[in-house]
Amino acid sequence: MSECRHVAELPRPEPAPLSDTCLACLEAGTHPVQLRLCLECGHVGCCDSSPLRHATEHFRDTGHPVMRSFEQGENWRWCFADGSIV
Ligand SMILES: [Zn+2]
Ligand SMILES: [Zn+2]
Ligand SMILES: [Zn+2]
Question: What's the gap in Å between 46 CA and the centre of ligand 2?
């Protein structure tokens, strides 16, 4: 869990969230199940349980590897590049 080099490269302080919901879902008319915050740029996207999985799409589009849960009371991080919690 400590082997992720991407976390060390993240901007500090953490970027402010660009929105308070998944804007891509808003546009598509779908509902995010849970939200994820990109720790590289502040993009807010929906999780893999959501219909369109925009957080994963954001990683594919931008290569930003690390996001964290944007849900209240949760603060775990996920690295897409490593495929694990970091
Ligand atoms: Zn990583
Ligand atoms: Zn979405
Ligand atoms: Zn990003």
Answer: 4
- DSSP states along 3-31: --HHHHTS-SSPPPPS-SS-HHHHHHT--
pTM above 0.70, yes or no: yes
What token pair was written down for 1? 């869990």
Nearest ligand to the CA of 85 is: 1
Each residue of 56-77: pLDDT tens digit? Answer: 999 999 999 999 999 999 999 9
- Among all bound ligands, the one having the nearest atom to the CA of 64 is 3
**pLDDT tens-digit map of 14-48:** 999 999 999 999 999 999 999 999 999 999 999 99
Taking the C-alpha atoms of residue 66 and residue 21, their distance in angstroms, rounded to an integer, is 18
